[in-house]
Amino acid sequence: MQTWIMHLDMDAFFASVEILDNPALAGLPVAVAGRSDRSVVAAASYAIRKFGVRSAMSVVQARKLCPQAVFVPPRFHRYSEISRQVMAVLERFSPLVEQASIDEAYLDASGLEHLFGPVRDMARALKDEVRAATGLTCSVGLAPVRFLAKIASDLNKPDGLTVIEPDQVRDFLRDLPVGKIPGVGGKTLETLRSLGVKTAGDLLRFGPEFWEARLGSWGPVLWERAQGIDPRPVEPGGEAKSSGAENTFEEDTLDRDFLRRWLLVQSERVAADLRQMGVKARTVTVKIKFADFRQITRSRTLAAATDQTLAVYRAARAILAAEDLPLRVRLIGVTASHFGQGPTQLSLLDPEPPRKQSKLDRAVGQVRQKFGKQAVLRGDVIDLESK
């Protein structure tokens, strides 16, 4: 049986959702971003990309490139709603669906020809159903292995469909720019170029030992990718590997009390997301970006998996307390990861038993859902949320 992996990627997802909900934006150069000039672009419509605006670009730079840009604040709850609709469509085609992010997923289409016909016809039918369910377009790549499926989905955007047949893999990879291989970042690309490697085919001039000596454990893996080898299966249930929240400040700061209060705000968001997903996290990570754009991340592993606000916050607060701040801070964020179920650990130092904390978190969430996030605020958060 021929293995077929499908990669689906929604087209300019956040921006497309905003245009879907507000048709007056159709054809306009739309960027999804916060209101502050210090924000970054979360998504760029295809109309604004013609001006050179891209995701992760600062709002200031985006405005310089496209003075007529229309900036729309993000609505992550709405994007999550549409994302769930997309995943529901995929699961009607195959039980083997792995959500890679809010707007992309892998699907194992192996052996489904007897249900849906040739894989290309199946992909077309899936794209049609996604459009019918959401009003949005997606691009799909089909290939014998997952990394090639991901590359293929990006080749004919938007609303694309690209199939790499098994007998096309070798020729496709021979001339593929090596930077197109997922996982080849800036430093790796710099090393490869210094060795005269421009295409995936160039990697095969040397053996796996050569690449391991220069790129570590990633070297032999990359050498296999250049031959079209990728044994990773589609793993259902991989829809979420972490939950995070971060904020860029109006002004850079060294005020640790201010930073701690933001960590509490973010910990509440993250913990609420964990509870909504029905998961608990064992690792808390704090991201700090300084005024010079240098960035650090620090992590702490918890004794027991948690979905409680205070447990996440205490870990984040401890991480911040252990860090020197050589420069003013531009951004801070909290992420919870390594999901799993585990026992709740009791502590003699906890002012409230864990069960009571969980009940409090749930009660706060229910009140906010009904009356808005301002209805209930923890004491340390009031100053921030009222600004």
Can you characterise this structure?
With 387 residues, this protein is of the alpha+beta class. The protein folds into three domains: 1-164, 2-Layer Sandwich (Alpha-Beta Plaits), CATH 3.30.70; 170-225, Orthogonal Bundle (DNA polymerase, domain 1); 242-385, DNA polymerase, Y-family, little finger domain (Dna Ligase, domain 1), CATH 3.30.1490. The protein has helices at 13-21, 46-49, 59-65, 76-93, 113-116, 119-134, 146-153, 169-174, 186-194, 208-215, 218-225, 256-277, 309-321, 354-371, 382-385; strands at residues 5-10, 30-33, 41-44, 70-72, 97-101, 104-108, 138-143, 161-163, 242-253, 281-290, 295-306, 329-339. The strands form three sheets. A five-stranded mixed beta sheet has the order 5-6-1-7-8. α12 packs antiparallel against α13 (309-321).
Quick synopsis:
With 387 residues, this protein is an alpha+beta fold. The protein has helices spanning 13-21, 46-49, 59-65, 76-93, 113-116, 119-134, 146-153, 169-174, 186-194, 208-215, 218-225, 256-277, 309-321, 354-371, 382-385, and strands at residues 5-10, 30-33, 41-44, 70-72, 97-101, 104-108, 138-143, 161-163, 242-253, 281-290, 295-306, 329-339. Helix 4 packs antiparallel against helix 6 (119-134), helix 10 (208-215) crosses helix 11 (218-225) and helix 12 packs antiparallel against helix 13 (309-321).
